[in-house]
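Hi Prof. W.,

I finally got the MOSC domain-containing protein prediction working! I wasn't sure whether to trim anything, so I left the full sequence exactly as given:
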Amino acid sequence: MKSIGIIQAIYRYPVKSFQGERLTAVNIERYGLYGDRGYAFIDHTRSTDASRSNKKLNAKFVPKLLAYSSKYVADRPDNEFPPIQVTAPDGRVFQWDEELFEEIRAVVSPREISPRKYSPEHDDLLGVDEASILIATDVSLAELEKIIGVETDMRRFRPNFVIRYDEPQPFEEFDWIGKTVQIGGTKLEIYKKCHRCSMVNVDPDHNTVNPTFLKHIAKHLDACFGVYARVIRTGTVTVDDPVYLLD
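And this is what came out:
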């Protein structure tokens, strides 16, 4: 077991394709972070046949969604996710109700959408597309900034965990694929690189689009940044927890 760094930041996204919240601690469930993408919108425009049903609305197709932010509020119920609060780019505040649904329908028109609230009892990945947890490192972001020539915010890449890495070796997380990391009592299997899409071009604060980001990531990193992990053992992860790479 080798110590490789500490947890620098934790991010959770209550609503898929909205901005999320920064946490100091989070429970790790079988599907990933508790409540991560616990809410979503289903894009019926993408559901052209049975095999493509239940497609979730994605900011890759509607970048304006990233101008909305979401967070959990109130207490944690036993059998459902807590209520959420959504803040629009102009500061208006919504709950998960028809007023918000009409707002988002107007943003994504002419797409036909419907709201979906998941349950903690689900056996799937809730509103996540394919992987439980996305991990990135601070040294990789610093190197990417050198490549692109622009300072940027890690939130652009929507990780769940940011590791402050002990070694000055950018992109070494790609070598972790097939290995296990331990954070507190939690164990995660690193199993694939994260292939990036046009969402990385969207500034998380101003919603402006700069295609330079994906262009350079594609050119220098085969369009990959960060790694995906699946949960082997549940537990709790806290900021400043040490991260160990297991043999």
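Residues 49-53 have pLDDT under 50 and may be disordered. Does that look reasonable to you?

Thanks,
D.
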